[in-house]
Specification:
two-stranded antiparallel sheet; 10 helices
Length: 220
């Protein structure tokens, strides 16, 4: 079996800085916060165990990219403002954050000239919750009247396809009419409940706010 060959720490410091998940997540928190944080605060914000946070801080401290103030239980950590890669690291995490904002904007704009026909447009599922994995779809829900739905969904899918390669995501668009909303709410459908709970609404009303209206429409 071929061995992994160690690379130069001077030429390739990013191996050590970004080498493990805990390092990246600690760095992300510190870069976005911009100030001093305790280990407990970092652990909470990064969604890491305390032991993983401590290991990440130790590793990053050894590279010099994270600095520490205080001692013992009073230690506070920050991104080292004097580190030669500090600005690039901050820019990298800013670009990461901006990308998700750009994806949401792409979804919002995907309705194009059909906006007046859209009753609700939202993102739900793992991406909305923040627990998606590599290869996960971006789940998009759209509600319109039955006569408009197929046109609206076609427009949304087509316009998102144009953006997906540029921003690196795959959209899965589900279209519902008001009758569907009434039925799903009445049946307390688990998919509907989760989609409503996760919802990041980008246009129109929240999907659950349409439940009462859907009942009127269904019996109308």
């Amino acid at each position: 079996m071929a061995r992994t060959i160690a690379q130069s720490a001077i030429r390739n410091p990013l191996d050590r800085i970004f080498g493990v998940d805990s390092n990246v997540r600690v760095l992300r928190v510190l870069a976005r916060h911009g100030g001093l944080l305790s280990s407990s605060d970092i652990s909470l914000r990064a969604g890491l165990s305390k032991s993983s946070t401590r290991l990440g801080l130790l590793s990053l401290g050894e590279t010099g990219v994270v600095s520490v103030e205080g001692s013992g239980y009073s230690r506070l950590y920050r991104l080292n403002g004097e580190h030669y890669l500090r600005r690039e690291i901050e820019s990298l995490f800013a670009a990461e954050s901006n990308r998700f904002a750009a994806i949401l904007e792409a979804v919002r704009m995907s309705v194009g000239d059909q906006e007046d026909r859209v009753k609700s447009l939202w993102v739900y599922g793992s991406a909305a919750r923040g627990d998606d994995r590599l290869g996960s779809d971006l789940d998009v829900g759209v509600i319109a009247d039955a006569d408009d739905l197929s046109t609206v969904v076609e427009v949304v899918r087509s316009r998102l396809a144009d953006q997906s390669e540029r921003l690196g995501f795959l959209a899965s668009v589900v279209g519902l009419d008001m009758g569907d909303v009434a039925r799903l709410a009445r049946d307390r459908d688990p998919w509907w409940s989760n989609a409503v709970n996760d919802a990041i609404v980008l246009s129109g009303k929240r999907p659950d706010e349409l439940t009462a209206l859907s009942g009127i429409a269904a019996h109308g």
